[in-house]
Amino acid sequence: MSSTQSGGGAAPPAVELRGITKRFPGVVANHDINITVRPGSVHAIVGENGAGKSTLMKTLYGMHQPDEGTVSVDGQVVRLHSPSDAIAHGIGMVHQHFMLADNLTVLENVVLGAERLHGIGARARARVRELSAQYGLRVDPDRLMEELGVGDRQRVEILKVLYRGARIVILDEPTAVLVPQEVDELFDNLRELKREGLTVIFISHKLDEVLSVADTITVIRRGTTVATVDPSGTTARDLASLMVGGELPVPGLRESTVTDEVVLDLRDLRVEAADGRPVLQDVSLRIRRGEIVGIAGVEGNGQSELIETIMGMRPAVSGRVELGGTDITGWTTRAIREAGIGYVPEDRHRHGVLLESPLWENRVLGHQTQPPNSKGLLIDRAGARADTERIVAEYDVRTPGIDVLAGALSGGNQQKLIVGREMSHDPKVLVAAHPTRGVDVGAQAAIWGHLRAARAKGLAVLLISADLDELIGMSDTLHVILRGRLVAEADPATVTPEQLGSAMTGAGLSSDDEEPGPREDEAEA
Amino acid sequence: MSQTLEVATPQVAPPRARNRWRILSIVFAAFVALSAVRMFTGQPVLTGSGTIQATLAFAVPIGLAGLGGLWAERAGVVNIGLEGMMVFGTWFGAFAAYTTGNPWAGLVAGVLGGVFGGLIHAVATVTFGVDHIVSGVAINILAVGAMRYLSILYFQDAPGGGASQSPPLPGFPRVGLPFVDSLLGPVEERQWFLVSDLAGLVIGLTTDMSVVTLLAILLVPASYWLLWRTPFGLRLRSCGENPDAAESLGVRVNGYKYVAVLVSGGLAGLGGVFLAMVASSIYQEGQTGGRGYIGLAAMIFGNWRPGGLAMGAGLFGYTDALQVRGSGGAVHALLVLIALALVAVAVWQWLRGRRIVAGVSLGFAVVLGAWYLLTDTLPRELVTYSPHIATLLVMALATQRLRPPAAAGRPWRRGGGS
Asked: Do B211 and B113 belong to one domain?
């Protein structure tokens, strides 16, 4: 362990990829990739969605073989035919989608498949505890998996890899599912791994995160390595231009298009959970034509319930929802959508798309009663297909065709399809929850652009996001939601992400002229 | 770094150990209540040693079917074809026992017959991805028709046989502790509160038991040990919880599914052997009488765990035994027990603040109590169907907080995940 500690010039690289090329029928996913990873370092690989990062990692993890090029581990050229080969060479992978069984304990999940190492009983438990303590993972082996949150699950995944003796840990988009505090904890864990002499390969497209944790950054664009840089001498903007070959988009609105005409009016909404606990109380909110209203809050403070109530997916106990003066409280979701509310759901796999259906069918969903999707009682196949082609072109959905299953697209492209679909029926109001979550920078800029254009034409938008820069940049008005109440209103022109962050945790918008504490009077306005 | 220290996860003690004691105390309380009801109603048959033995005889095939369901579903395959696999077990067991004259040959053949049914199910569901229910129902239909065909071929001309039944079959040896009956028999007859009931229980569990019954009882802890205490079991269960995760860790998912479904069929086949050669002494068409399905119900009642399903099988076996041995009077006495249980539920729900549920339970308790006091016996039809009614009631009341294997019943293909 000590020999690989600081990774000086003498030690061979932990991983060296030379001239890796991988072709799939019709595409070259990777082309002449060259990466050298120093032992005991955190090496980030960044690139847009679809740039070929995941293909490269599958090569390194033995899930498929490269067509050309060599993989070396600790200076030795190896051929990895399967993940077991990779594990035997000390390479472990934490998948983007967790591979865990909910109804098994942490211990059972960790030892599964590696029972030969320490059995499945007391010795294995002791080893898990030991590793957990050594790397600061704080994992209790006897908890049931389903009781754990996302951050804990990820630590179990890391533990699984360590338990198998990995010295090189690959993390595929590990922060995509985490909230900001969990990201910080993960980074502490990664630094701990590094301190113990392990090598971490970290795949991401979130540049700020990469800059804060990585020792070396390799940028991949269109399947090939374009640069390897040192984070101390570079900025997010430089990285972004390397990634996309252009400028990093900044969320922002030009001039105010807010009018006096209230389109969506929420009055004193109260929503309760199944056990009678209030999850939304006294929520009153007005959105005018041409206005984007942002809602900031730590996840789980009532944002989901607010959206679902507006969309008619969850009944309000009291209060009203009015759309352009019409009371739509208690309407069915379809009626609400037809009345002119578009919806970009927060979890696109649960609510937004059918992964097993082709794109054009997904384009019909939710608008199945309206042209161009239907003629009378029947679905208008030709019309829907033609309009899907239009969305694919206008919103730059990268797909081989509209008969491809939605599940075959990357998350960003699915999101672009959803945004395109929701915009296609000229909604009066758009409820957009995390519209750019899991989307690469190029697509992010495009979605912001579409929102801006629609706003200029008079669209009213309710924007919910965990990305504070996006909220501040894209909102005309900002509200903070805390424990089901709108506790503060902020001016996006002057507020900083730090102030917003402290308001989200209940400390109030702590600037000099305002007194701390939740400002509930805002909600009654 | 300071942040990580603050955000420590709350440590909650695993509730399993507590659960175990709770279940034991509930079982004990139920036994005490049963004893009290026996004193109150004067129905010694409620806890008599004969009833216990009959309970075992009725519970074993249900329990074996339930264990079969447990093995298959823990590996992610729903096995509604247990009924058909039991039918295979009854026929092949009878055929081999009759032709060789050796009951053990019958046992082996019956188990293999069940394994054969399991193999059909495994090939259909695991290899070809057929819907599990469709395949299972097909096996149930196939089994009945095929066995009648074979009966006509082989049993029709045999002495005492026919198109729907076999000639008389040899029986299995019976075992027991020799001194228990003579020692505790008098105690049971005294009708003391609790003591006589315990004596009845002990006699029933230690005297004159078929070796197949003993084998079946031992299979329950054996299944638990295999499935929960060995790497083999962990891998098998992981296939039923998250096959993609299991595959990513090098578990040969389809292999484990095959093993599980074959074992499942073998257990159901053993249940069939029991029906044909222990509970009866000939093979008869329709002998299984839906026990494969009741076995699945017992497994669900037991929350997909061996101990729970044994309790469920015992419950169904007990109601069966009562209606056969005690006829109307004993089942009539059960009304008091159910009323008592409902009162307990009412108190518990009231304490949890669910007043309406408590009220309804109490109302039913009063109705049942009145029913008991105003009548002397139950209508014949109700008595015959009491096992089925018990199944329905138990399923309706007990299936509130169950945790089936997450991937049970879902077709799975290699390389589906990431």
From this structure: yes
